From TrEMBL:
This is Porin. One of its GO terms (cellular component) is pore complex. Homotrimer. Residues 1-22 form the signal peptide. It is found in: Cell outer membrane.
Length: 309
């Protein structure tokens, strides 16, 4: 851990030197903390929680002839001070690659293209209502190589190969086709279809769509996942909606289900609101409840602050 902290500090202090070597470098991050009442089945308690707060460096280096190096080194930082195992700083996406007319190839640790294919349909990503609570497929994989094609009439193909990394291991593949802009700034519609094959022990098929309609941002996702070893299958859907009440206030709602063979049904429902204080900063609140057939029900009521730089 000491080495990791020193490496981060050295990278940040060295960032200014990249600019004079025909490279670009950006220091960025996000602080997201909530004060919340949490009930995970044994009674409610109050906590301050850091929600995937992070810091990182990313940039490009023009090699000429339309070819560039791209890189990222991102770290999660637990800002609530609860870490007592030396893991207050952990790895997120970290890679280096090449970008050109052929598309983009990245090697290192990265979100699979299936995870990326959700776009921004999950309105409560990184919070207690994140879709990874009920579904598989939200994977950030080490030992991976990701290729993304150029866009053709709004369509783009992507594939992630995950190396087995050991004699007894198995390699895996994630593939996706997307259409449009996930931020819905360059297009009014985003859609994707993605497939995982043996990624972390699961086969996954996922379809996503999101668009804008009369002031609403509406999204939907359907997923089927199957455990490779047992063959147990789970089907589910997600529906999300966001409405801009004013330029500063947005109301949000999301429903997610997961129905497993054998009658194990789970569902989650979340209501929330964002208040934009500036382009970089928002205050927010949300309430999440999970109904779990085979486990304890969960409830979360939170207020928080997010700052991006």
């Amino acid at each position: 851990m000491k080495f990791t902290k020193q490496a981060i500090a050295l990278a940040i202090l060295s960032a200014s030197t990249f600019g004079v070597n025909a490279a670009t470098v950006e220091l960025y991050g996000k602080a997201n903390l909530t004060l919340q009442s949490s009930d995970e089945g044994d009674g409610s308690f109050t906590e301050v929680k850091s929600n995937a707060s992070r810091i990182g460096l990313k940039g490009t280096h023009d090699l000429g002839n339309g070819l560039s190096v791209v890189y990222k080194a991102e770290f999660q930082v637990d800002m609530d001070g609860d870490s007592d195992k030396g893991d207050s700083i952990t790895d997120r996406n970290q890679y280096v690659g090449l970008k050109g007319d052929f598309g983009e190839v990245l090697i290192g640790k990265n979100d699979t293209v299936t995870k990326q294919s959700q776009g921004k349909v999950d309105l409560f990503s990184d919070l207690n209502a994140d879709i990874k609570v009920l579904w598989k497929g939200e994977n950030r994989m080490s030992d991976s190589v990701t290729y993304k094609s150029p866009k053709f009439s709004g369509f783009q193909f992507g594939m992630t190969y995950i190396a087995e990394d050991s004699v007894d291991g198995d390699d895996a593949i994630s593939a996706a086709v997307t259409y449009g802009d996930k931020g819905l700034k360059k297009s009014k519609l985003f859609a994707s279809v993605a497939v995982d094959s043996e990624v972390k022990g699961y086969d996954v098929v996922r379809a996503t769509v999101q668009g804008k309609l009369q002031g609403f941002t509406l999204g939907a996702m359907v997923q089927t996942q199957e455990a490779v070893d047992s063959g147990t299958e789970t089907d589910g859907f997600l529906v999300s909606a966001k409405y801009g009440l004013t330029k500063a206030v947005a109301l949000k709602a999301q429903v997610q289900t997961a129905n497993t063979d054998g009658g194990d049904d789970k569902s989650g429902f979340t209501l929330g609101a964002d208040y934009k204080l500036a382009k970089s900063t928002k205050a927010f609140a949300y309430y999440t409840t999970f109904d779990m057939d085979s486990g304890a029900d969960e409830d979360y009521l939170a207020v928080g602050l997010e700052y991006k730089f």
